[in-house]
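Re: that backbone. Tokens:
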């Protein structure tokens, strides 16, 4: 089970060396709840990532505003950790809140912006864009 995003941020602040943060990122990826095999579809695949990445967005419409829940997976350990951080950041938010949330600011706070390769950074932006688009779609459908 993934820790809450506040705990992830605190743990990153505690780790001074990039190697330690790198290991923690991979550990977060291992804590991701499994994405069912049937969810590894083209519709769930995130384009713009060098690694294979799948994000499944579930919309809970039981409250006054839709809430988003995510499952994800990747075939690369570091990328799977990035997926885990994004899921911890976005999961459970209302659609309008998720559409406005500053995930790039989070990556700067965690030091990921300067340590991820350009390809992984582009992939992270593609994941953020996909989540934001799903959030905007859920908000518009409400």
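Recovered sequence:
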């Amino acid at each position: 089970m993934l820790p809450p995003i506040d705990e992830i941020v605190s743990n990153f602040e505690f780790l001074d060396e990039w190697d330690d943060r790198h290991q923690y990122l991979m550990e977060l990826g291992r804590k991701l709840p499994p994405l069912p095999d049937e969810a590894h579809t083209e519709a769930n695949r995130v384009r713009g990532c060098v690694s294979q990445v799948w994000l499944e967005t579930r919309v809970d419409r039981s409250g006054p505003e839709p809430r988003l829940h995510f499952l994800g997976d990747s075939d690369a350990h570091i990328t799977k950790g990035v997926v885990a951080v994004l899921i911890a950041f976005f999961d459970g938010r209302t659609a309008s809140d998720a559409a406005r949330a500053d995930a790039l600011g989070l990556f700067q706070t965690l030091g990921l912006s300067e340590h991820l390769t350009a390809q992984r950074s582009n992939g992270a932006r593609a994941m953020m864009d996909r989540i934001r688009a799903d959030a905007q779609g859920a908000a518009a459908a409400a």
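The beta strands are 53-60, 67-74. The CA atoms of residues 133 and 141 lie 12 Å apart.
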